[in-house]
Structure formats: structure tokens, C-alpha cells
Design goal:
Length: about 375
């Protein structure tokens, strides 16, 4: 009999040869420029109290699917608060942003539907497209003309999916132009506001709200509670009929245990702290970080520093870590082959001294070693 694990040795060797080995290192005590805690709320005492109180009142886990025992009055309050904040008719909370994307796309698209997906979309949207069994057309990053061509060549139902703020490079999708195309073709636009909520728009309502697309009937939004809100979980925002249909049919909602009460309580508390003032602080930190790194500022809180080679990117990340500065290192499949990069994120509560120190460490880590 052969060794049933031989395939794994071969698979691991390939991962190593491509420079794609990942590590799980503890991060406490490091200067964080890698997380998505854009407003610094994950450790905010009010947010932590929100989590603690919810856990005490409702339990450590939600004990069942949202449809059985996993819905508390707090879940419903969070859904109302999210919808109100973002200017949506309704919201439905999932236990992660990943599952919210799976639920939204697989409910809106199926066999016989065309899904047009930006090449830079987050993996959860990519997986959602695959799982939907729709006809999927991937278009170049931000290529509105390609979206138009795809929709023009399709007679049936169609959905266009895009990140609002792209997670790796912090750029904004051409949402107004995409919506215009979608409207003219009678399609739907799904916008993932993971990096827009709490970062852009009035009171952090997101990129769609910033651009006046929040009340458009053909726009469905997804959000995550795990980034600017500092909590955990996700949601789909859209019309009441869509919410009803997700409750009845979205497999990532129906067959998943409801979001833990602590995360719900934390997200609700965090929403009150998402103020224009805090967002202004984040924007100022983002601008000074970009300036210190000598790159163009982005509308989001993310700066991408292209390295190319995955080995070099991880070495640069490790050099930062050795200086106790934590930066993101993105390698395939998170980015296309040849586009490995460092990803540096701003946080509203970073001091100017921390920004200066982090930027100096990152710049020096990116310089090729002498000799
Ligand atoms: N969409 C985007 C654009 C993301 O960056 C992420 C998280 N990395 C997700 C969705 C998934 O959200 P969550 O972590 O809440 O599952």
C-alpha cells in the first residue's frame, strides 16, 4: 500500500518552493500597522464592555442557527442600527463577512445568471461566485467598459460584484460608473463595503453612501463587523424582500450558528463610536502615513507597497517584525502572481511618533540589503 500522506509532502514542497509558507505568530505588544482595526475600536473599553455585557446577558455562544435559537433581541437591534446607519431598508447579520458574501451572491445568482466579477475582488466574493454555479466572467481591475461588454452580451439576469474599497491596495471601485452600467442593463450591483464601513461616507456609512448610491434599489451591500467596528461578524444590506429570501434560503445563514452575542454587543457599541471626528483622525493618519512612505494616499485606510517577489516580500515583513512593527504581507493567492506586497494600514489612534517610527522601519526593510 502507498503512503496516504505522500501527496501532502509534495504539496508542502510546492508551497515552500513558491515562497508561500504562512506562519501563525502571536502579535501582542507589536506596533500594529497590519490589522483592519481602522478606528482602534477592538480594544476600546466601551466596545469591550458591550461584548462583556452581551455575553453575561445572552451567553457565550448563540446556541443555534439564527432560525432556531440563535436570534436575540440584540441581533435584531444590531440589524436595525446597521440599516439605519447605512441608509439601507434592512440588514441581516451573518456570523462573518465571508459568510455574508457567500449568502448574498449565491442568493442573487444561480445557474443561468451572469456574474461579472472584478479581478481584484476579495476571496470571499470569488468563492461566492464559484459556489453560486452562475456563469462567471472575471474582468480586469476597475474595467467598467469590460463590465458593460459582458452585460451587453447576456440576455438573462445579471449581477455585478465588486469590493467598494479593494482590500489589498485601498483603491475605490468606480462605483458610480458601475451603477450606471448596471442600471442601464437591468442588472444588480453587489458592493462589498468591508473596508468602506466606518472609513468612508457620512458617519462611516460607507463608499456607497459617500457617492449617493445608498438608496439605489438595484444596489445590495455587504459589510463586515470585524474591521472598522473592531468586532466580528458580517451583514447583507438591501430591500426587505431580499432579507426575507436570505432568511429562507441562504445556506451560509440557515446552516450556520448565529453570531455570538459578545460580537453583536461589541458591534452595537462600536457603531456609536463611529463618528465623523474619529474618521477624520483616521484620514489624517492615513495621509501622514502615505506621505512618510512616499506613496499616493488612498481613499481607504490601506497603503500597498509593491514588492513583486513573494520571498522578498516576506523577508521585508520579517525585518519589520524584528523591529517590532507589524505589517501585512500579501502573496498569491491573495494577490496575482508577481504582485506580492506589503500592506500597511492606518489606525485612527496611531500617534505621529508611531507613524514616523513605523514608516522609517518599513522604508528600511524594503531597501535591498547591502553587499
Ligand atoms: N470582504 C473583504 C473585502 C475582506 O477584506 C474581508 C476580510 N478580509 C471579508 C470580506 C471577510 O470578512 P470577515 O473577515 O468578516 O469574514
Amino acid at each position: 500500500m502507498g503512503d496516504p500522506w505522500q501527496w501532502l509532502d509534495e504539496a508542502r514542497a510546492k508551497v515552500r518552493a513558491r515562497g508561500l509558507v504562512r506562519r501563525l505568530d502571536p502579535t501582542e505588544g507589536l506596533l500594529d500597522l497590519a490589522s483592519n482595526d481602522y478606528l482602534g475600536l477592538a480594544r476600546h473599553p466601551v466596545v469591550v464592555d458591550g461584548a462583556v455585557e452581551a455575553a453575561r446577558r445572552f451567553g457565550a455562544g448563540s446556541t443555534g442557527s439564527r432560525l432556531v435559537t440563535g436570534t436575540t433581541s440584540l441581533h435584531l437591534a444590531l440589524e436595525e442600527a446597521l440599516a439605519a446607519r447605512c441608509g439601507a431598508e434592512t440588514a441581516l447579520v451573518f456570523s462573518s463577512g465571508y459568510l455574508a458574501n457567500l449568502g448574498a451572491v449565491t442568493t442573487l445568482a444561480g445557474p443561468g445568471t451572469l456574474v461579472v466579477s472584478d479581478r481584484g475582488n476579495h476571496a470571499s466574493l470569488i468563492d461566492a461566485c464559484r459556489l453560486s454555479r452562475a456563469t462567471v466572467q472575471v474582468v480586469a481591475h476597475g474595467d467598467v467598459a469590460a463590465v458593460e461588454t459582458a452585460l451587453a452580451g447576456w440576455a438573462g439576469r445579471a449581477v455585478v460584484v465588486t469590493d467598494a474599497v479593494f482590500s489589498v491596495d485601498g483603491t475605490l471601485a468606480p462605483l458610480v460608473a458601475l451603477h450606471d452600467v448596471v442600471r442601464r442593463h437591468g442588472a444588480l450591483l453587489v458592493v462589498d463595503e468591508a473596508h468602506g464601513l466606518g472609513v468612508l461616507g457620512p458617519q462611516g456609512a460607507g463608499a456607497c453612501a459617500l457617492l449617493g448610491l445608498d438608496r439605489e434599489p438595484d444596489v445590495v451591500r455587504t459589510v463586515t463587523l470585524s474591521k472598522a467596528l473592531g468586532a466580528q461578524g458580517g451583514a447583507v444590506l438591501g430591500p426587505a424582500a431580499l432579507r426575507d429570501h436570505l432568511v429562507d434560503t441562504a445556506r451560509s445563514f440557515v446552516f450556520d450558528t448565529g453570531l455570538a452575542p459578545a460580537s453583536v454587543g461589541a458591534a452595537l457599541a462600536a457603531l456609536d463610536l463611529v463618528t465623523d471626528e474619529r474618521i477624520g483622525l483616521l484620514a489624517a493618519v492615513g495621509a501622514s502615513l502615505a506621505a512618510a512612505l512616499d506613496v499616493e494616499p488612498t481613499p481607504g485606510a490601506v497603503v500597498r507597497l509593491l514588492v513583486g517577489d513573494p520571498f522578498l516580500a516576506s523577508e521585508a515583513r520579517d525585518r519589520c517584525r524584528a523591529e517590532r512593527v507589524l505589517v501585512g504581507c500579501f502573496r498569491p493567492p491573495s494577490v496575482p502572481v508577481g504582485e506580492a506586497c506589503l500592506r500597511v494600514t492606518a489606525r485612527a489612534d496611531l500617534t505621529s511618533a508611531e507613524v514616523a517610527r513605523a514608516a522609517a522601519v518599513v522604508r528600511s526593510a524594503l531597501r535591498p540589503p547591502e553587499g
